[in-house]
């Protein structure tokens, strides 16, 4: 089996889908691996390190993908990459199928079998492959670091001879993977943290991290698979009042509220931003799906009504070294347990729920139930 690792071409994407460590493991299973030159540059991984791990480093994309059985990517392939993929190859990556339905045409043209790892069901067997968890965890961390970097005050309480500095107040909206790490990071920096989520079940997790859980009323927002569902209008109104009152007292706000495949819930209006303290900062992790805050601008840092708004769509790439290491381990787990037999040959159980959950196209034909 030949595995090809491509250099990511999307602007601002510094991650890579395989590391020298993961490549050594693929080779130990009997695979051969080619890496496009410079693929690891953004993640502090040199061509030399890949060669030392046993990979062949190719300068031409066409030579890298030639005869490849499996192509490893972080993001969906660009046109130029698609054109140079061998017919019938398998592509594994975070292919953003909800945002990029138009690209299925390219998969069909090349008869590709494509797996989109963001669609993995969040069951315990899939934990080691769960790219959303590994990347969102880092995004939650980096969101707080970016918020603090843009904040003109210190975060922890400081008692000095010149007087006492009060601790910063942080509010985390959405306490999923990114939100829980944002809570933990803000706590570690010394902020007074509160958090809000529609799923009452996360209250215990929020409190165990030392944050205050803000509750609206008893309407469970938990749908199947541990994700949130859409809430009633009455609930949304009560939620808006509570968030507005809480926001007015905050210094740092991290937005992470999400319902998969839907536009981000709009939790912060312009009116609410106007009511916030000047100098406070909002980091909106939901920027790419429309934003939890009405004033967020995608991939920009803007100041509105005295509040700094940060809308970076690719936080994991801002910690590309660790993000690549974790992503590469997720990818190795997925490929080695679901696409390969123990002797390194291709072997797929098409009925496995992790396969049916992530398989977008098979031989070019769209087969995933959400996209037919
Ligand atoms: N900007 C980036 O670089 C970046 C990186 C990773 C994740 N993200 C985004 O961050 C968000 C969170 O990702 P995650 O992996 O933590 O998802 P997750 O599913 O683990 O968590 C989302 C949380 O939001 C909650 N939620 C849903 N609707 C809500 C509402 N109306 N009010 C309050 N809470 C609500 C859910 O209950 C859930 O706990 C997503 O929008 C994701 O796309 C962005």
Overview of the structural elements:
The protein is α/β, with parallel strands linked by helices. It has two domains: about 1-130 and about 320-365, Rossmann fold (3-Layer(aba) Sandwich), CATH 3.40.50.720; about 135-320, NAD(P)-binding Rossmann-like Domain (Rossmann fold, 3-Layer(aba) Sandwich), CATH 3.40.50.720. The protein has helices at about 20-30, 45-50, 60-65, 80-85, 105-110, 130-150, 175-190, 205-210, 235-245, 270-275, 320-340, 355-360, and strands at about 1-5, 30-35, 55-60, 70-75, 90-95, 115, 160, 165, 170-175, 190-195, 210-215, 250-255, 280-285, 300-305, 305-310, 360, 365. Strand 9, helix 7 and strand 10 (about 190-195) form a beta-alpha-beta unit. Helix 1 runs parallel beside helix 11, helix 6 (about 130-150) runs parallel beside helix 7 (about 175-190) and helix 6 (about 130-150) runs antiparallel to helix 11 (about 320-340). The two termini are about 30 Å apart. Nicotinamide-adenine-dinucleotide binds near residues 197, 199 and 289.
